[in-house]
Design goal:
Blueprint: E1 4-10, E2 15-19, E3 22-36, E4 42-54, E5 69-82, E6 88-102
Length: about 140
């Protein structure tokens, strides 16, 4: 198995869909890194990962809002395509197997409210944080990106 791990911020609020009786949470995670190029100029590169989290428990969805920092891991997929300018491009996708919220709550409702790994931080319906995708969802299923 190939496993992708990403820590980053959500680019927009997640979208919960129901497909053939199964729930999926779609979200995008951005990871940015700063570096110096060969000429010594400061550069920044952002990598986006389109995520699909198949789960029967969608209670975590209200916490997956724009700007939230998450750790997610799962099986990666890459798609190559030609963009509007006629240049080759690629999309990085992940079928999420587990997710964890990181950092604090942005609207200051509590010191740990944004980190559901703490037992007192989130409603009981959200715990445990780490969940796996249903076993009956195969890799051949269409991803709803």
């Amino acid at each position: 198995m190939i496993k992708l791990q990403v820590i980053g911020n959500l680019g927009k609020d997640c979208i919960v869909k129901e497909i053939n009786g199964k729930s999926v949470i779609n979200f995008s995670v951005a990871h940015s890194e700063r570096f110096k190029d060969a000429q010594g100029n400061q550069k920044e590169r952002t990598t986006w990962v389109e995520c699909a989290y198949w789960t029967d428990r969608t209670a975590i969805a209200p916490y997956l809002t724009k700007g939230t920092t998450v750790y997610a891991e799962g099986a990666p997929e890459a798609d190559a395509y030609t963009n509007k300018e006629g240049q080759a491009a690629a999309t990085l996708r992940m079928r999420v197997q587990s997710i964890q919220l990181l950092g604090g709550n942005r609207d200051n409702q509590g010191a740990n409210a944004g980190n559901v790994s703490h037992a007192t931080a989130a409603p009981a319906s959200v715990q445990p944080v780490m969940r796996t995708a249903p076993a009956n969802v195969s890799a051949a299923d269409d991803l709803p990106f």
